[in-house]
Design goal:
The protein is mainly α and about 140 residues long. It has a single domain, classed as Orthogonal Bundle (NinB fold), CATH 1.10.3790. Helices cover about 50% and strands about 10% of the residues. The strands form two sheets. It has a two-stranded antiparallel sheet. The longest helix has 18 residues. The protein is extended.
Length: about 140
Amino acid sequence: MPLEGESTDYVIGIKEGDVISAEFSQMRNGKFFRKWWALINYAYEHWEPQEVEGNDSRFTPEKNLETFRKHITVLAGHYDAHYGINGSVRIEARSISWAKMGESEFKAFYSATVDVILKHILSDYSRQDVDMVIDELLGFL
């Protein structure tokens, strides 16, 4: 790919003896990545947080897409466990960026994500129902 704009200026500005570093990664299938996001957005639209009890009151927490995505990612098994010095464990969703996950790993993750959503959110759907809905949504994008 030819250099354009700021990239050209940057490369021209490199002088002999300058130390630079770069990180390269091969992009996986962008359409499949959009399919995963369509799945997450569809599930999020159909999910309603449960009412919880607080100090002498009941309330329904506010929905948050980023928190929802992270919880689905963790439930799909794509997480790291961080141990605190007090013995506590904090579970954190791993990145799904192209640089952090290869194509075959992403396909397995997508399948696990569908399983989680079918179990916890779209329990009256079949896997074929989910595939059909997501393919239809992608047709509008």
